[in-house]
Amino acid sequence: MSIASFAARGAQIYTCIAGEGGPVWSAAKPDADLAQPDGRVVGRHFEGPTWEIQDGSRVVGSVIDQAPAPQPHAVAWLMLSARATGSGMLAGTRYVLRSDTDGGEKPAGGCTPGQTVRVPYTATYTFYR
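^ DUF3455 domain-containing protein, sequence as received from the core. Prediction below:
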């Protein structure tokens, strides 16, 4: 059962790291606001991945499945298992779905170790019990 859905707007942050074959972009770290359908920002999404709502509830997720986004240059759609804390809106969350993504894909081409880039993205995050 869905308990909440939020529109996310922000960036996927990539850092260039040394890889076996040369420098590569790291896995993304999100930095986004979470908004209700009326546009009111009620929380944030950040590294972990973690979602935190202003009522104090928090969810930390772990990817269990993914599918390529239908939009070109968009981050994948994800299904995550979740661990919720707090007694607010997200209490009892067991799964999170990231869908409707636009943008956020890691840069194409090479990089210089230590270089960081913020790639704008939007998505919908739906929380399930």
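The mean pLDDT is 96.
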